[in-house]
Amino acid sequence: MPTPRHYLMCPPRYFAVDYAINPWMDPTQPVDRDLALAQWTRLRDTYRSFGHTVDEIEPQPGLPDMVFAANSGTVVDSQVLGSRFRAPERSAEAEHFRRWFVEHGYRDVIMPSKINEAEGDFAWTGRVLLAGTGFRTDPEAHAEAQEALGVPVVSLRLTDPRYYHLDTALFVLAEATDSAPAQVAYYPEAFSPGSRRVLARLFPDAVRADEADASCLGLNGVSDGHNVVLPGEATALAARLAERGYEPVLVDISELRKAGGGPKCCTLEIRK
Ligand code: ARG
């Protein structure tokens, strides 16, 4: 069943690929900012059409990756844990989001002392916080998140540079409830052998995605428990989710993918 969601998004009015901090980014290739904005607007309106609340933060000149709002905060039970970016090119984003939260009534925003790329590397299952490391978020940020949010954290190691954030390799389809465990989809090959075994133990019924699903950033999905927003190319994954009773909704994110992002990267979830 879908549950109402509250998202924070940042329109890509200053979107560009001016630097390369992941293998998807090629500053020599052209980027169509108007098209990126149109694709982003479509994504925002898709969430609104499901009845979800979408707030917008003002984008800032000189911060072309600020559209990827998911990297700027992890919110569980209204407790906000901010971010600390690995790349100097993105570090100023963290303060803009911290200020947004404070101005919107979230008074005790905790800012991390370790590199922490927020929902890029953290996924809430309703019971535990899955936490990625290997490329961006520091493993010590996992322990820091556990203390700040008061939730159990399970560390997972990413090993393929194309899947540099946890949210490029795994997403939560449905949070755990009193009667059902969480459901997730993930691409096992993006993880270390030990982390694959952890995922197999925690989620024996997971949707295991393949290379074709992953290489269009199909694991960068956003689910409300029923509607699952996916990049348009993720048709095979969409079919498998439909078999499980989900409603896949395909959106074109081709311009945003030039920076290494998809639907989830653009979508910071605010959990009450
Ligand atoms: N260019 C951005 C970076 O490399 C993309 C971030 C995508 N966000 C995400 N949640 N995976 O940091």
From TrEMBL:
MF term (GO), any: dimethylargininase activity
Superkingdom: Bacteria
InterPro entries assigned to the protein according to its UniProt record, in alphabetical order: DDAH-like
GO biological process: arginine metabolic process; citrulline metabolic process; positive regulation of nitric oxide biosynthetic process
Coiled coil: none
Active site: H165, C265
Keyword DNA-binding applies: no
The keyword Transmembrane is assigned to this record: no
Keywords for this protein: Hydrolase
Xref: NCBIfam families: DiMArgaseDdahMtb (NF045659)
Stated family: Belongs to the DDAH family.
Protein's name according to its UniProt entry: N-Dimethylarginine dimethylaminohydrolase
The organism of origin for this protein: Amycolatopsis marina
